[in-house]
Amino acid sequence: MTGSCCPQYSRLTLPLINASSASLLVRWPGGPLRGIAQLPASKSESNRALIIQALAGGGELENLSDANDTQLMQRLLADQQAAVFDAEDAGTVMRFLTAYLAVMGRPAQLVGTARMYQRPIGVLVDALRQLGASIEYVGEEGYPPLKLNGWAPALSSDEPDELTVRGDISSQYISALLMIGPVLPAGLRLWLTGKVGSRPYIRMTQSLMQHFGATCRDLGTVLEVRPGAYQPADYTIESDWSAASYWYAMVALGPAGSTIILPGLREQSWQGDQAIVGIMDQLGVATEFFPDGVQLTQKLPAAAVEQDFSDCPDLAQTVAVVAAALGVPVVMTGLESLRIKETDRILALQTELAKFGGSMTEEGEERFVVRSADFQVSGQTVETYHDHRMAMAFAPLALRGPLTVQAPEVVRKSYPRFWKELERAGFAIENQ
Ligand SMILES: O=C(O)C1=C[C@@H](OP(=O)(O)O)[C@@H](O)[C@H](O)C1
Ligand SMILES: C=C(OP(=O)(O)O)C(=O)O
């Protein structure tokens, strides 16, 4: 891969950032942003690969993510004695592990953070009960925590288990069910109803399952999995495109001439958040692919942008902040799932953008418009609401002025090295 690497990248003595510091003051010293940024590996690929590896009974996984969500999944899967599984704030861990433990017939309790108890799981529990799982709600009906009491599948038949599953709440239920499909006696057929969000995550699940020897068919509203054991296989996890989006934001908001190299991203990706390439092409960032990564360079943004986030909900915060800071009006649709993620991301965006002179208003059903008038970054404090993506989406604003980010340790969920990488790129970061 060609491209120039900034001198800061080789600076090895980084000031210590206290991970549990109440807040960080982030400043940009001036001049273009240039360098190579290290991304985490995809937590979505990692967490699927770990579940499938456990069901396959082997295979080497290279470049597993250092995200807390992945480290947690790995620890919980490795613990053969555990009776209580704490999924913390990790949606994939809660949903994928529920299906895995259910089909393994492991009696278990699944617990998590207070926020996890507000994130619905009824669609998955109903489906697993139909397949033969005995699952109780410990608290509120339809939400974690859960108690799994065992697995008693219906008498075997030659016909696959057939379920109808809503696709408009979270695709993670569908991925969780698909992954256990090959170990069901006659496989699985899912009929999807409603508007199916986060589709690329379902396709990622199918691709990884196929990599491990499963036979899947995707007929749009019908998804089929044939019975038959997974085969152990090796897989190297790609870098995380959702994490890459924050570097796109920095190149878009940086001084003229800003450019960043991101290793480990593939042109043929299973991650739907690769959509950031096309979105940011309109918001002032050109992407050049190399065999082992990409180089981002600044360009002129479009005058206005319209974007449906149904396939890539995790990019919504990045894009909203960039659009507001650039003063490019953006019409955003497909944001239905944002209210039930780590926080109510729509409310959080509205509240925090307003501090800078930005707005995100609902104009029509499920249609939001981001605008700004005299957007200024001048020492404001950003609240992060226990949401890693709030911290990382707003951090690039530091290129436009000093910024304080509350509870910066939230980034550990998906990108523990985030603040270190910002320092490497030349940001001045101080504990507050
Ligand atoms: O399957 C996955 O790895 C994910 C699916 C998406 O969730 P929803 O399907 O709930 O939208 C996404 O927001 C999340 O960060 C990761
Ligand atoms: C929504 C997210 O994760 P999860 O649903 O897995 O907690 C995310 O990483 O933005």
TrEMBL record:
<feature type="binding site">
    <location>
        <position position="171"/>
    </location>
    <ligand>
        <name>3-phosphoshikimate</name>
    </ligand>
</feature>
<dbReference type="GO" id="GO:0003866">
    <property type="term" value="F:3-phosphoshikimate 1-carboxyvinyltransferase activity"/>
</dbReference>
<feature type="binding site">
    <location>
        <position position="172"/>
    </location>
    <ligand>
        <name>phosphoenolpyruvate</name>
    </ligand>
</feature>
<dbReference type="InterPro" id="IPR036968">
    <property type="entry name" value="Enolpyruvate_Tfrase_sf"/>
</dbReference>
<comment type="similarity">
    <text>Belongs to the EPSP synthase family.</text>
</comment>
<dbReference type="GO" id="GO:0009423">
    <property type="term" value="P:chorismate biosynthetic process"/>
</dbReference>
<feature type="binding site">
    <location>
        <position position="43"/>
    </location>
    <ligand>
        <name>3-phosphoshikimate</name>
    </ligand>
</feature>
<dbReference type="GO" id="GO:0009073">
    <property type="term" value="P:aromatic amino acid family biosynthetic process"/>
</dbReference>
<keyword id="KW-0963">Cytoplasm</keyword>
<feature type="binding site">
    <location>
        <position position="43"/>
    </location>
    <ligand>
        <name>phosphoenolpyruvate</name>
    </ligand>
</feature>
<keyword id="KW-0028">Amino-acid biosynthesis</keyword>
<keyword id="KW-0808">Transferase</keyword>
<feature type="active site" description="Proton acceptor">
    <location>
        <position position="314"/>
    </location>
</feature>
<feature type="binding site">
    <location>
        <position position="172"/>
    </location>
    <ligand>
        <name>3-phosphoshikimate</name>
    </ligand>
</feature>
<feature type="binding site">
    <location>
        <position position="170"/>
    </location>
    <ligand>
        <name>3-phosphoshikimate</name>
    </ligand>
</feature>
<keyword id="KW-0057">Aromatic amino acid biosynthesis</keyword>
<feature type="binding site">
    <location>
        <position position="413"/>
    </location>
    <ligand>
        <name>phosphoenolpyruvate</name>
    </ligand>
</feature>
<feature type="binding site">
    <location>
        <position position="198"/>
    </location>
    <ligand>
        <name>3-phosphoshikimate</name>
    </ligand>
</feature>
<dbReference type="InterPro" id="IPR006264">
    <property type="entry name" value="EPSP_synthase"/>
</dbReference>
<feature type="binding site">
    <location>
        <position position="48"/>
    </location>
    <ligand>
        <name>3-phosphoshikimate</name>
    </ligand>
</feature>
<feature type="domain" description="Enolpyruvate transferase">
    <location>
        <begin position="81"/>
        <end position="422"/>
    </location>
</feature>
<comment type="function">
    <text>Catalyzes the transfer of the enolpyruvyl moiety of phosphoenolpyruvate (PEP) to the 5-hydroxyl of shikimate-3-phosphate (S3P) to produce enolpyruvyl shikimate-3-phosphate and inorganic phosphate.</text>
</comment>
<feature type="binding site">
    <location>
        <position position="44"/>
    </location>
    <ligand>
        <name>3-phosphoshikimate</name>
    </ligand>
</feature>
<dbReference type="GO" id="GO:0005737">
    <property type="term" value="C:cytoplasm"/>
</dbReference>
<comment type="subunit">
    <text>Monomer.</text>
</comment>
<dbReference type="GO" id="GO:0008652">
    <property type="term" value="P:amino acid biosynthetic process"/>
</dbReference>
<protein>
    <recommendedName>
        <fullName>3-phosphoshikimate 1-carboxyvinyltransferase</fullName>
        <ecNumber>2.5.1.19</ecNumber>
    </recommendedName>
</protein>
<feature type="binding site">
    <location>
        <position position="345"/>
    </location>
    <ligand>
        <name>phosphoenolpyruvate</name>
    </ligand>
</feature>
<dbReference type="InterPro" id="IPR023193">
    <property type="entry name" value="EPSP_synthase_CS"/>
</dbReference>
<dbReference type="Pfam" id="PF00275">
    <property type="entry name" value="EPSP_synthase"/>
</dbReference>
<feature type="binding site">
    <location>
        <position position="341"/>
    </location>
    <ligand>
        <name>3-phosphoshikimate</name>
    </ligand>
</feature>
<feature type="binding site">
    <location>
        <position position="91"/>
    </location>
    <ligand>
        <name>phosphoenolpyruvate</name>
    </ligand>
</feature>
<dbReference type="InterPro" id="IPR013792">
    <property type="entry name" value="RNA3'P_cycl/enolpyr_Trfase_a/b"/>
</dbReference>
<feature type="binding site">
    <location>
        <position position="314"/>
    </location>
    <ligand>
        <name>3-phosphoshikimate</name>
    </ligand>
</feature>
<comment type="pathway">
    <text>Metabolic intermediate biosynthesis; chorismate biosynthesis; chorismate from D-erythrose 4-phosphate and phosphoenolpyruvate: step 6/7.</text>
</comment>
<feature type="binding site">
    <location>
        <position position="119"/>
    </location>
    <ligand>
        <name>phosphoenolpyruvate</name>
    </ligand>
</feature>
<dbReference type="InterPro" id="IPR001986">
    <property type="entry name" value="Enolpyruvate_Tfrase_dom"/>
</dbReference>
<feature type="binding site">
    <location>
        <position position="389"/>
    </location>
    <ligand>
        <name>phosphoenolpyruvate</name>
    </ligand>
</feature>
